[in-house]
Amino acid sequence: MIKPTLHSGEFTYPEGTYFQAGYLTQKNAGWRTARPVLDTNACVGCLQCYLHCPDGTILETDDKKVTFDLDFCKGCGICAKVCPKNAIAMTPERGLSQ
Amino acid sequence: MSTQFISGNDAFAAGILLAKPAVISAYPITPQTVVVERLSEYVADGLLPDAQFIHVESEHSALSCAMGASAAGVRTFTATSSQGLLYMAECLPYAAGGRFPIVMMNANRALALPWNIYGDQSDSLSQLSCGWIQAYAENAQESLDLALMAFRIAEDTRVSVPFMVNLDGFHLTHTYEPVEVPEQALADKFLPEFVTDNKLDFAKPVNMAFSAGPGHNKRFRIGHHNAMLRAFDVIAETERDFAEIFGRSYSGALDAYRTDDADYVLVTLGSVSGLARTVADELRDEGVRAGVLRVRYVRPFPGKEIAAILAGKRVAVLEKDLAAGRGGALFTEVASVSPNASLSVIGGLGGEDISAGAIRGIFETLRREPETEVLYL
Amino acid sequence: MNTRELSKNEYFFGHKACAGCGGSLAVRIALKVLGDRAVAVLPAGCMSAVGFNFPQLAFANNAIISTFAGTASMMTGILAGLNARGEKDFTVVSFAGDGGTADIGIQALSGAIDRNDDILYICYDNEAYMNTGIQKSSLTPYGARTTTTPPGTVSRGNEFRKKDMLEIVRAQGIPYAATASIGYLQDYMNKVEKASKIHGTKYIHVLAPCPTGWGYATDDTVDIAKAAVDCGVWPLREFENGVYSETPARGGDKAEYLRRQTRFSHLTDEEVGAITGGSL
């Protein structure tokens, strides 16, 4: 699968403003105030959430459900809203950590 | 090889023909037009079978298009002048920072206002800090030769910086001279294929022309500066090979004439230099030890060499521009490395001829009125 | 191409767009349709600002930032360069904002259409200069509050009408032009796919709501984009080889669409009525 990937450690500066495509050094998880939580029983695997995610952080699982890449999910809640089965609940991050 | 009686613009176009760019994008402006007309004819006549001539809608687009082509990894040429150079000004540091080795001919012309289509150097000298190599041709032959050398120097991976070749508007672009036009085989021998990693590549995709914030930013800027300084060696190497292949020699960033034992040196830029040398010869015959130092490359700026050549002389700097509130841009550059540059001469503004008598007058002012700081011809 | 047929690859990922950004969805989906052989050109604007922060580079495919005014001309250069290299089967695609397209970039866009260069120009329209802090562009709708059209004692917000870009490119005889909305992604995907197979200049203008600039909750982006189409504020239009078609409004209330966004909150009911009634 082609996708920008996280790298850690040192890199060599290029001579000019050109560099390996899709080279990431930071996650976006810290932006989130709420995270999507899936009710797997309600999910029918229609992939509307995956399609509409502006960040591409929703992946289809082997059992035709979905999972969330919480390293890059910003918690916008679009997935929960477009879900025709209301299978996604946005849960405050604070609540999760307590 | 054939000797042709052609203009500076024609000669430059002949050089571009020999360099075989893949993409030419240009917008017309006097006095650059002849170059793009010739290149259009070459393309129309099948002489540049692999080149695409793109009729863009502005100079900004001309250079923007050239950057796109260069980002695709192919040899690219454009040409402009004056208002056009300034219209594309945003793209100048962009192409330089992007390290796109585009070659551009600039027909030196006055800047509006007042409107004026004739030759002076206000346009390119206003863009000294834009990150491009800047060379100034003296005659039609050198114009052709610089067209070829510019690609080799710019595309050398030790440099990878765009190259602006300046021709004095009308005085050089439209003046006919005998020019030796080399054979294609020799040009091919001299100019290798353009190879770069700085390109869009489906096998190895890249993100290009990106942002670099505080901390990262300086790496690119300092790297660019160092590449410009490395250009001195590449220029020297290129000229050595050029002399070997074509039999014509050039002298790097500077062209010093009878300066070794001179008491008085006139620093010049561009097409007026030949006349300055003639006047220096006349003065020598009269017992005045005069010399001429033509600056061929203003960027990178050969400061140390200028300082060494001008040591112990009395120096005037002649240029066709005037930066309001400061004076001559070239004088400012030269004076920054040599305290001997005492007389700034502003001439040729808006295309005014500079006569032999006027140049003689500069030397006389240097000799008799050492207190004079500025002379307007 | 439906959701399941769409490439699983993510070409625009790890970017720093605001949560709920409509523009980033437009970029992500188009690149999934176009695949590995897309070369993306992005002028100054939100999507370049959030995607190219060295060493955080969010495009998996070849991508480059153009000058603000030079999107289409850089696309032309890339096209010419790749052709010169002998490359085949690629798409040079842009993602330029509304200001980058309808204001500063329109000269270069017009030039590319004039030459019928084989490029796919996508304008993601969030209806103001969002990257610089929500200033009015020529695609900002009438009445909207922006930071440069603030409602005041003698002003009611933006007093200029939204420029009709589709009519402008259509007047130049472009082979393909369409509007789209991220509220109707299937339609957008179809149009991107269709455009990629047409030779010449293609223009797709996709409405991409911005929670930050329009003033609504981040989860509402897709719904608002749908509502804009449904109520007839943003019809889905297509112009292909001289034939024009338009998806009729699906019903929905224009006033309600405006009232969902704080950028219109200063308008009185009478003013909203005048706007939606089309008498202004």
Description of the structure:
The complex is a heterotrimer of chains A (98), B (377) and C (280). Chain A has a single domain, classed as 2-Layer Sandwich (Alpha-Beta Plaits). Chain A has 3 helices and 7 strands; from the N terminus they run ββββαββαβα. Chain A has helices spanning 48-52, 78-82, 93-97; strands at residues 5-6, 18-20, 23-24, 34-38, 58-60, 66-68, 88-92. In chain A, the strands form 3 sheets. Chain A has a two-stranded parallel ribbon with strand order 1-3. In chain A, strands 4-7 form a two-stranded antiparallel ribbon. The model of chain A has no long low-confidence stretch (mean pLDDT 95). In chain B, 39% of the residues lie in helices and 21% in strands. A 7-stranded mixed sheet of chain B has the order 3-2-4-5-7-6-14, with helices on both faces. In chain B, strands 11-13-12-15-16-17 form a 6-stranded mixed sheet, sandwiched between helices. In chain B, helix 13 links the parallel strand 16 (341-346) and strand 17. In chain B, helix 1 crosses helix 2 (33-44), helix 7 crosses helix 9 and helix 10 packs across helix 13 (356-368). The mean pLDDT of chain B is 98. Chain C is α/β, with parallel strands linked by helices and 280 residues long. Chain C has a single domain, classed as Rossmann fold. Chain C is 34% helix and 17% strand. Chain C is built from 11 helices and 10 strands. In chain C, the strands form 2 sheets. Chain C has an 8-stranded mixed sheet, with helices on both faces. In chain C, strands 2-3 form a two-stranded antiparallel ribbon. The model of chain C has no long low-confidence stretch (mean pLDDT 96). Chain B binds chain C through residues 22-23, 25, 50, 52, 54-58, 60-74, 76, 90-91, 94, 200-202, 205-213, 216, and chain C through 36-37, 39, 41, 48-49, 51-55, 57-67, 69-70, 72-85, 87, 90, 107-108, 110-111, 114-115.
